[in-house]
Structure formats: C-alpha cells, structure tokens
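#struct-help
A.M.: can someone run this one for me? Single chain, 88 residues.
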Amino acid sequence: MQLTAPAERRTGIRDTDGMAVASFVLGLLGLLVLNVFLGPIAIALAAVALWRGTDRRFRAFLGLGLGVADLVVLAAFMQADNSISWSF
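D.P.: on it. Structure tokens below:
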C-alpha cells in the first residue's frame, strides 16, 4: 500500500529555475551597481542551477556570463583608476 502519490516531476526544479533567473537578474544589475558583490553571487547561482539541471539553461548561462562581465568591468575600472579599490 502506497500512502503518497508518486512524484511526477523532479523535486526542486522550481528552485533551480529560480536560481537561473536570479543569476541573470543579479548579473544584469551588477553591471550597474555593486559589481564586486553581485558578480560572484550571480556566478555561484548560475553554477548551482546548471549543476542541478535547470530547465532554463540559457538564462543560467547568461547569468554566468554577466557575472563574469561584472568582474571584468570591476577590474577595468580599477585598472583605469590605478587603485586597488573604489575611491570615494
């Protein structure tokens, strides 16, 4: 006798789809503000979403690329300013 219904979908798929979308949004937002924080978070969320097998692979890859672009923009600004960190 089975008391629970069998799972029709993999469990946690909504979580991974949400991570892919969050990665994209944070990577896009990171190009404008706080790229030192939002870039690595976008990269981590995209990597976890891809590792768990999200259905939104393209969105996760965009988030991964935007997270890397955030860090590249940060490095370019730091190089142009000849400083180690932001100067206020």
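A.M.: thanks! The first helix runs from residue 13 to 30.
D.P.: also worth noting: Residues 13-80 form one domain.
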